[in-house]
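User: what does the whole thing look like in 3D?
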Amino acid sequence: MRLLHWLPGRLLSAIIVLLGASILIFAAVRSLPGDFAQIVLGPLSNEEQREQLRQSFGFDRSLPEQYLLWLGNAARGDFGLSLASQQPVLDELASRLPVTALLAGMAMLVTIAIGIPLGVYAGTHASTGRGSAAARIVSTIGISFPEFVLGCLVVFLFSRFDLGLSVGAFTSPTTDFGRGVVSLLLPALVLSVFCVAATARTTRDAVIGVLVEPHIAASVARGEPKGFIIRHHVLRNALIPVLTLTATITAYLLGGAVIVERVFNVPGIGSYLVLALDRRDYTVIQAGVLLATAVFVIASLLIDVLTGLVDPRVSVAKKGRGA
Amino acid sequence: MTAVIRVEGRRRSVLRRAWDYLASFDGLAKTAMWTLAVLFTAALLGRLFGLGGSPTAIVGPRLAPPSLAYPAGTDSLGRSLLPRLLEGVMTTLLLSAVAVLLTAVIATLCGIIAGYRGGRTGGLIMRVGDILYAFPAIVLAILVAAVVGPGYIAALCSIVLVTVPLMTRMVGQATRLVAQRDFITSAVISGVSTPVIMTRHVLRNISGTIAVQGTYALSVAILVEGGLSFLGYGVQLPGSSLGLLVQEGTLYMVKAPWLILLPGLILVLAILAINLIGDSLRDRFEPREARSLE
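Assistant: Here's the predicted 3D structure for the full assembly of 617 residues, as structure tokens:
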């Protein structure tokens, strides 16, 4: 099993990245200029409150000790209390997680269902002129639309004209899943536009890359039907770079969700993070940023393993590089 | 006298060569360049000669639709939108360009060191890049804004931190490919010093990658600045940036749609133009064969 040769190294590098990110997040918040308690509690706080805050953050210990304490608690799911609401951060994150997960999941579904066929079409028609130019322009427009512009545009159109779907009326998927999906339809579509275009571009390039390989020419020479060649020879090889792109798309969906949730007033993790920034709620910011980073690291690890299972060349390359 | 003429002659030929080079791009890329040039010139005219009037003066009725007197309409305070748009274009383009210039310098330096020297320093650079790469763009920008506080500096730092990891990685990969080639080996054998190899031989051969990645980084930069300003943590009032104008526009979306449509449209046009130029540069420096199944 070749996978076993490089998996430990890949796991180690994922752990290093996560630890590095956590140090960065910790250091960033601790590097705030001035007295941390003063910044958090404001100028009207009294010395007793500030002392209490310093103690709850473990400020009487050394910095490395503070970091390990924070990390140890975070690893057990204890992110401390929100500075603004005094509720455990974990509970607040957990109550909002299903919304963001559903939003990102729906956007991912749309991305795969539209992006890949579009890319395959553009790639197989790359040298025939008009269709290829159209696909290129459409996908370039797609990656050029910031989701806050597109989101605002959709909100404008759907609030100005009666188009069947309402914006702003949000139903939680945990109370009514079906209506939750419907209320997240527009946000998910807006969120997916960039990813659809990016997937189409990558798929197109990958398909073109496979089409020039000699084994395709051999298949054509053998007289295999076109649909068969695309399904069996082109797609299987071209989907590997697309699979790799999925990791980047995951990160993009997490970041884009922050903006889209803000535009559509969706109470998910993203809008919680922006709210925390508005309130200078540093425990929530630390936890939210760490969570987003961890999701990306774990997702890209899973995708690397999946790619390794699908494509034997990857495991050889990974082993050779000593990753 | 002759010396002066010769200098002038040489300068003209450089300009001519630059013009010829720009003229060699395909139609789509040329249109994109013209779009950016027009946007930038309009913004520059606004800054230098007050084209469109003062961006802060209250000149007319509130929320007036576009007309001859106010070509882009007025906002909720009765300020003409056109000068604010021009100022926003200037801020967005300038801020993004400065940030990407910083990114290009950092990424080229780190990428060449990591790709050519490798070793422990190179490994460390790549690891730090991996760590920064693990943060989703806007999430990283939020962390930066939380520490630095809202404003130009937050936007600048966010853009640099978001764009550096990918560009470093790409420059590192390109460097590694160049470093394997024979002319580098012969330079090493001939006793050329490492800094000279890095600048004269490696840097020149990866300049295409730097141009392509720099262009894409510029479009990411505009996205990040727009996103951060939209959330209220980038450029602050009374300044103006395209993201900030879109955010302001959301408040009066139904009554005064031009307040959101115009800055949004310009933002999309600018990013689209930059991406098209990036595609064209990529086709030029990384040519690929295309074949269809027909």
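In plain terms: Residues 22-55+77-290 of chain B form a domain with the MetI-like fold fold (CATH 1.10.3720.10). The first helix of chain B runs from residue 2 to 23.
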